Amino acid sequence: MDFKGIHDRLRALSAPGLIGADEPRRPDPADKKDKGRYGVAFVRVEAARIVEFLTLCRDDERLAFDLLVDLTATDPAADDENLWVGYQLLSTTQHQRLAIKVTLPKAEPAIESAAAVHRAAQWHERECAEMFGITFLNHPDPRNILLPDDWVGHPLRKDYVFPKEYRGISCE
Amino acid sequence: MSEATTQQHGNITLREERVLPSGEREFMLDVRTSDLEVNMGPQHPATHGVMRILIRTDGELVTGAQPHLGYLHRCAEKIGENVEWLQYLPYTDRYDYLAAMNNNLGYSMAVEALMPMEIPRRAEMIRVICAELNRIGSHLIMFGTYGMDLGAFTPFLYAFREREWMMALFEKICGARLTYSYIRIGGVFNDAPPGWLQEVEHFCDVFEEKHKEYVDLLMLNHIFVKRTAHVGVIRPDLGLDFGLTGPMLRASGIDFDLRRDMPYSVYGEMAAEGAFRVVTGRGEKGTLGDCWDRFYVRVMEMIESIKIVRWCLANIEDGPVIGDVPKVLKVPPGEAYVGIENPRGELGHYVVSDGGKVAKRCRVRGPSFCNLAVLEAIMPGTLLADSIAIIGSTDVVIGETDR
Amino acid sequence: MEHGNYVHSLLDGVAPDWVPGWAVVVSTAAVGVALLIAFVAVLAMFSVWLERKVSGHIQCRYGPMYVGGWHGWAQSLADALKLLMKEDLVPIGADRVLFVVAPALVLGSIFGALVAFPFTPGFFFADIDLGIFFILGMSALTTIGVVMAGWASNSKWSLYGAMREAAQVVAYEIPLGISLLVPLMVAGTFNLLEASQMQAGWFGMKWLVFQNPFMIPAAILFFTAALAETKRAPFDLPEAESELVAGFMTEYSGLRWSFFFMEEYAAMFLMSLVAAVFFFGGFESPFTHLAQRAFVGETAAVADLPLLYQLTAGVVLFAKALFGVFVMMWLRWTLPRLRIDQVMTMGYKYLTPLALACVLAAGTWEAIF
């Protein structure tokens, strides 16, 4: 199914937490400043209901999203008050993809861990947690994965300041 | 009868069982042996890069395995937010340095998804030829190093004989042997020099002959089969749960290949004509989804790549090799995730643009990162010598795992 | 004074009167030891060069080509010099005494085994009646040295190598000895010189391996068990390069490591010598037969054999042993490694029963014919 078909199916199943969709569009010829939105479509989901949403995507026989391909986060701008968490799903049987975006407040970014639905989420969430400071609730193994255990700060945030030194080694 | 008393001396527990009629006391000795925690890596001949795996063993039996990553973390994603779109290309070469062409292709396609432009057909053909040749090169390294891990030193050098030729071909087309930065946003950097396509055809002919050698020497070798069959079995549902992609998943019997099922570039036409088939594991020599199956899938995929290259050579036409891309590129605003079939699995690039010269987010989904997670689940219960076979069969490149 | 031993006689003749008898004996022994050490050292260096050339050619490359000119023959000399100049490291926490004794024990036991060998029909260090028994016993001592090395290194990986080595050697001693029983039955003697001499005949081709149809399986079994004893591929788990870095040898460097290395090639040579003597004719071959016809009369005593004949016989024996070494090297660079439980299964469940069956069948054949 294409994105429209998937979105319609999600709405038909009253997918928990589904807020809406964001599809690419051409620039509006009337508005000079509008550059449009290119790329790939995605659905927006509430942070509180993400686990149920993912479970539905996995278990429904028309959606059949059995692979969690990617789980990542984005810091849109230093002055933006939100963080985005993105999930990429893939169906090996139906040959379709779905991109999901969840918005979290930067002040207290916490979301339920998707590890219960897809074990692939475990390592991706560990990386998001250390890079962005997002707390994944009920994560089975919350340790740093790429950074040393005593690293201070969340590198991929836009307001991250590089440390001057680490354990006596200069970082200049 | 006196009641049982227990004394603890270090690891030994003494339990007094009973007092004999003669007045002697009888003890039960309980020696608690602790598991040996062995550190594999970061420097180790068999871990394919700087990776550390903490293995807990009880004698030769592995009771727990915990990979520790980050030794090769080079902040590729942070750099993506600080350099311009075109300047980021050399960084993409360096995550999976054994399949650099595929990395370039993945990144270029992700950025092209944000741009309303058309890639010239000749460029698409050359892209696919280069990507598939690189796939062969990458699988040859897997073939050679896996043999070396298991003690067969010679196939490694035979594999490198062909790989040297492949690298010479790439040197002719773009000047580099390992990190190419050749597949650019909009096409490829320059056209193939005269005679290059004929040499690629010659390479295909010779490679098909040599491939039989590889199959006989290592894949069907009795000792190799004994070392890899029934070892490290990944059930299909476990594979899907862990987000495995590529040969790891196909070896467990799941018939899914992005090139055929969700095609990109010219793979769609090829798949429609049935130019190549997708190799899946069949549990021929052992259990479905064991190390031998993963090896089998990769070795046989090399022949399928040859078929793809031949199709491209037959259908390539003259024309421009790069679209109209300005030197200082400003990508229109938007976000896109594009996943392509890398030799190790699905390489995904998630790019977010706000219309400027620099990306807002450049996320790399490295297949080796996801494939490595499965070790924690399949290694406990195997022998220590098997752990080498299992780690080798995941075919991880730490550059991609850590980025 | 005339003694059975040529060197002893020489020294006795040369020494002044005031030198006591036991001093001459000791110096004879010292000369013998020096000769043996020199022989093993040269043998090891040559074997290393041979291994590198053989592996190179199997792997489509040349191997050493520069050092010394022709095909890099002096490469081993250069490596030996480098090893001698290395720092003598003993790891922190290692058991110092065991760490130092282990390589010495390992090399010493192989020296001891080589003592019982006749290098030519007239030249040997000790003529032991229980020749082969002594050799097998001495070569088994290397295991103690290896386990010592693994334990004393204070490294978990070395310990793994040592554990595997102990298990493997114990498993393969049995088929090694039992498969040797077949030629021992046919030859009827433990003494190596006698066993070699009784294979003269059929123009120098009356080898033991042709005298009984069950000698061929026995030879194959012996060779396989010998591969396991000397820790060569496909049984090279104790020093599994790509798994355990260097197994029990990981923490050794410089001269101490070179002892282990020398021991490996000396042991390979030793096993090939045993196979050559007890299966493939020892000194006997068409060349020695011709040399015997040319240089030696019918009833020459062993000690008076002419030099040319002795040389021919010695060269023939060495050639056979070197061929065995070459086959071992060939196998190493072709076959992958077996896992430890597969090694043990093969040893206990397949080789030992086969060896026993061989002995039974060969004995029956001998009794009937």
Helix proportion of chain A: 10-25%
- Largest sheet strand order of chain A: 1-3-6-5-4
**Average pLDDT over all residues of chain A:** 88
CATH topology of chain A: Beta Polymerase, domain 2
Broad CATH class of chain A: Alpha Beta
> Largest beta sheet of chain A, briefly?
5 strands, mixed
- Mean pLDDT value of chain B: 87
Query: Into how many domains do the coordinates of chain B divide?
Result: 2
Query: How large, in whole angstroms, is the Cα Rg of chain B?
Result: 26 Å
Which radius of gyration of chain A do the C-alpha atoms yield?
18 Å
Biggest interface, CB < 8 A: A-B, 41 and 47 residues
Strand content of chain B: 15-25%
In DSSP terms (H or I, runs of 4 or more residues), the helix count of chain A works out at 3
**CATH homology-level superfamily of chain A:** NADH:ubiquinone oxidoreductase Nqo5 subunit
Q: Which sheet architecture does the biggest sheet of chain B show?
A: 3 strands, antiparallel
**What class do helices, strands and sheet pairing of chain A give?**
alpha/beta
Order of SSEs of chain A, N→C? Answer: HEEEHEEEEHEEE
Topology:
The complex is a heterotrimer of chains A (172), B (403) and C (369).
Chain A: H1 3-12, E1 18-22, E2 38-39, E3 42-45, H2 50-59, E4 67-74, E5 82-91, E6 96-105, E7 110-112, H3 121-132, E8 135-137, E9 165-166, E10 169-170
Parallel strand pairs in A: 3-6, 7-8
Antiparallel strand pairs in A: 1-3, 4-5, 5-6, 9-10
Chain B: E1 6-9, E2 12-19, E3 25-31, E4 36-40, E5 52-58, E6 61-68, H1 76-80, H2 89-93, H3 100-112, H4 121-149, H5 154-174, E7 183-184, E8 187-188, H6 196-219, H7 222-228, H8 236-241, H9 247-251, H10 258-261, H11 267-273, H12 291-315, E9 334-342, E10 345-353, E11 361-365, H13 367-372, H14 375-378, H15 384-394, H16 398-402
Antiparallel strand pairs in B: 1-2, 2-3, 4-5, 5-6, 7-8, 9-10, 10-11
Helix pairs in contact in B: 3-4, 4-5, 4-12, 4-15, 5-6, 6-12, 12-15
Chain C: H1 6-14, H2 21-58, H3 75-84, H4 96-115, E1 118-120, E2 123-124, H5 131-140, H6 142-152, H7 156-187, H8 192-197, H9 215-229, H10 241-244, H11 254-278, H12 286-295, H13 307-332, H14 340-368
Antiparallel strand pairs in C: 1-2
Helix pairs in contact in C: 1-2, 2-3, 2-11, 2-13, 3-11, 4-5, 4-6, 4-11, 6-7, 7-9, 7-14, 9-11, 9-14, 11-13, 12-13
